[in-house]
Amino acid sequence: MATCRAVWMRLAPRSVLQKFLRAMPPLTATAPVLVFDSGVGGLSVLAEIRGLLPQAPIVYAADNAWHPYGQKSEHEIAARVPALLGRLAERYHPRVIVIACNTAATIALADVRSALDLPIVGTVPAVKPAALASVNRAIAVLGTAATVRQPYVDRLVAEFASDCLVIRHGSPELVALAEAKLRGTPAPADAVAAAVAPIFAQPGAERVDQVVLACTHFPLLRDELAAACPPGVALVDSGAGIARRTVFLTQGQEWADTPSDGIAVFTANTPDLPLLMPALNGYGLTRIDLL
Ligand code: DGL
Fold this sequence. Notes:
- The structure is a single chain.
- The protein is an alpha/beta fold.
- It folds into two domains: 32-91 and 99-122 and 242-290, Rossmann fold, CATH 3.40.50; 127-237, Rossmann fold (3-Layer(aba) Sandwich), CATH 3.40.50.
- Helix content is 43%, strand content 16%.
- The chain has helices spanning 14-23, 43-52, 74-92, 102-115, 127-133, 145-148, 151-160, 172-182, 189-200, 222-228, 239-249, 273-282, and strands at 33-37, 58-62, 96-99, 120-122, 138-143, 165-170, 210-214, 234-236, 262-266, 285-290.
- The longest helix has 19 residues, at 74-92.
- It is globular and about 55 Å long.
- Bound molecules: D-glutamic acid (DGL).
- D-glutamic acid is lined by residues 37-39, 41, 67-70, 101-103, 144, 147, 175, 215-217.
């Protein structure tokens, strides 16, 4: 049986908390995998999860009211994400939550895990595989401004890439271009090239042969980014690893024979949501909810 305990419930009177825990239903074959991001970036992770778990019911949650996370402070993100995931868990009773957002995970993963009695999969920059693959011992970490300054990234670099030149770059522009692309506006090649140019202007950057896509929005621009980077540079992301971890954490569980329609849940009813419907449908998300 999966139970969840929202962090804000810790502040509630004991009688309220006990009532909430008693009210949690047992894990059923229809319990969804809940994939969370600030916006549409987590769809790149959802695609990998669907590839391995086609029968999984999906709830995709986007905190569009508060997007973009990459421009927020650590304090703001740490305060918002556990409480929001608690509300989502209470409403949808997921079997597992996937934080498909490097910014949220590198800042708030530990807080979320201590707040919720549910398996939580975090997304962290793929520094390890990039360093393993780098022939020239030089990699770039391309994420949001908030992600690339995190101590979490310092630790990944110290553990897995200490013998590499590591160039970090935060790009809100690429996040905005990915959001626009999924609303039907293609990303102009010159805008993508301008967004990655600061990486290749750094001393030693001519040796970079691996670029870590440390924001889940960026695989949505994989072709555009590949065209904007120098020839021979590989793009590495965490999506496949997250999907494998999700499979591992749900092994042995029951799934419905036919997957139910996927749900996309947003935190704000913005006028541009209809523009997203074709892209959401392409990821099997056919119903929109508001939190
Ligand atoms: N997709 C998110 C990430 O992986 C963040 C985008 C944003 O909200 O700035 O970090």
